[in-house]
Design goal:
The longest helix has 11 residues. By secondary structure, this protein is mostly beta strands. The N and C termini lie far apart (73 Å). The protein has a single domain, classed as 3 Solenoid (Pectate Lyase C-like). About 3% of the residues have low confidence. A hairpin with a 5-residue loop joins strand 26 and strand 27. The chain contains four helices and 31 strands.
């Protein structure tokens, strides 16, 4: 007996020009691949059908269960299969052939915490050249404004960020926020918040995972989440998302170690490459006991040869930063937003907000185009997670640290706002400093548009709020604004301002050499 997929929101799913980037070079990343050796478990043999609108969840899961522990290959071939949440077990390869896809059900009742997941598994491979399609735009409301396909002609920041959407309405922040599709009632229209699944592909508590030659499209929420896992390889992967569906991070690496990401293309609405170390995962849909949700440090992460298109941050450490993050390397990458406006929020963003000690971070050989702020480094004391114990409180209540950051060989075109390196000073006079920051061989050129500045007499101290490069208002300098820092070196840094510029290139405040 066939079970049909009944959409929760049948009127959703409208796509506008500009939602998707149309020039992804698929042939550069995705290739024909032979089915690996081992016993093959064809989902069609278990009753899966590619008939449109018919659910195959039970059949696909039966194939995955049968393959568990047998070094088996679960074969998805012959078309598009509609399914709810499916789980991959240890010693299993999920092979999605290049002519085929797993399409997410459009009914929220068919999911728990993720679409495709591997939890507490070892020796898992996902490959084949096919697609994991999340149907994400079916679980968000339409935006206030359609995508902006031409430049605004000016750059304006909110002087003080009191409104999360970035009002007043003529600011760049509001311009991109108004085009995002939210699952929440952001515009206070009396709509019910949509509790969508958090992960499109979720790798949690796993060891020895190989993800290659696969496409993730139209993510439900986060696209690829790697958390509490070790020895994970991601290569030749494309993330092709609607660039206006909220929270669709590209690759999130959380509390994991020895993760290598290479040769990937990410086009998405939210952060492209993101490293985090939260205390808890903290999402309503996660059905995991609290005792199992404690995370840990994130270390030994390598990212290379990545192209990222994002309206938000291309590379980001943060904001969920409770446990230490160390030994992160990112190289030979392109960060851009070539065809919709305004430009991406930041290219490189490193933020300790919740007590994390972030150290030994290296980025080199980075090219940016139409990214508003090339570099944003921030230490604050939001401390959203609380503390594990009284001893932990004493250690973390003053905030974490940002130390030993090296950024070199950066070329940026279409810059719109000042690079910021800042710690914080609280109301009691305590100063949290960022330390040992080196930026070497950087060339950046402003977009020569109109700048509408409103520089306040004092730059706001961001002690407890969400850190973001466009949330502090206009800086008194056009190149770098450096505050509450120690041993910051700018070596061979050249920034070309707008022709109308009147500000100095660099201003430092409370900086110790």
């Amino acid at each position: 007996m066939k079970t049909y997929d009944i959409p929760t929101f049948p009127g959703n799913g409208i796509i506008y020009t500009g939602d998707y980037y149309l020039d992804i070079p698929y042939q550069k990343y995705i290739y024909e691949e032979e089915i690996p050796s081992g016993p093959v478990f064809d989902i069609r043999s278990y009753g899966a059908t590619a008939e449109a609108g018919v659910l195959s969840t039970e059949a696909i899961q039966k194939a995955l269960d049968e393959a568990a522990g047998k070094h088996g290959v679960v074969l998805v071939a012959g078309g598009a299969y509609t399914t709810g949440t499916i789980s991959i077990h240890s010693d299993t390869t999920l092979f999605i052939a290049s002519d085929s896809s797993l399409n997410a059900s459009r009914n929220l009742d068919n999911f728990d915490d993720a679409f495709v997941k591997a939890v507490n598994a070892e020796n898992v491979t996902i490959c084949g050249g096919g697609r994991i399609n999340g149907n994400g735009e079916y679980f968000v409301y339409l935006p206030k404004e359609r995508p902006l396909l031409k430049p605004m002609g000016y750059t304006k920041l909110p002087p003080v960020l009191k409104d999360p959407l970035g009002r007043p309405e003529d600011t760049c922040r509001f311009a991109y926020r108004a085009r995002i599709r939210y699952a929440e009632d952001k515009w206070e229209e009396g709509k019910e918040n949509i509790k969508r699944p958090m992960y499109t592909l979720w790798i949690r508590g796993c060891k020895n995972v190989d993800l290659h030659n696969i496409i993730i499209r139209d993510s439900l929420d986060w696209s690829l989440s790697i958390d509490m896992s070790e020895h994970v390889s991601v290569e030749s992967l494309i993330i092709d998302n609607n660039r206006h569906v909220a929270n669709t991070d590209g690759i999130d690496i959380m509390s994991s170690s020895y993760v290598n990401v290479r040769h990937v293309f990410v086009s998405t609405a939210d952060d492209g490459l993101c490293v985090k170390a939260p205390m808890l995962q903290g999402h309503d849909s996660i059905n995991v006991a609290d005792s199992e949700m404690k995370m840990g440090p994130c270390h030994d992460i390598t990212i290379e040869d990545a192209t990222v298109i994002s309206v938000m941050n291309a590379f980001k450490i943060g904001t969920e930063t409770y446990f230490p993050i160390r030994n992160v390397k990112c190289s030979d990458c392109v960060f851009m937003l070539p065809d919709i406006f305004p430009g991406g929020v930041s290219g490189i963003s490193i933020e300790s907000a919740d007590g994390s000690d972030i150290e030994n971070i290296e980025l080199k050989n980075i090219t940016m185009k139409n990214i508003a702020v090339p570099v944003f480094i921030s230490l604050c004391r939001r401390n959203k997670f609380g503390y594990l114990s009284e001893e932990d409180r004493k250690a973390k209540e003053k905030g974490g640290s940002v130390d030993s950051i090296t950024i070199e060989n950066v070329k940026a075109e279409g810059m719109e706002s000042t690079c910021i390196i800042t710690g914080f000073k609280d109301d009691e006079g305590y100063i949290g400093r960022v330390r040992n920051i080196t930026i070497r061989n950087m060339e950046a050129e402003y977009l020569d548009n109109e700048e509408r500045l409103e520089i306040l007499p004092e730059i706001r101290e961001n002690v407890k709020d969400y850190p973001e490069s466009n949330a502090l208002g206009d800086m008194p300098s056009y190149g770098f604004y450096i505050r509450h820092a120690e041993n910051v070196k700018l070596e061979n840094v050249r920034i070309t301002p707008r022709s109308s510029n009147t500000r100095p290139e660099i201003i430092t405040e409370d900086v110790i050499k």
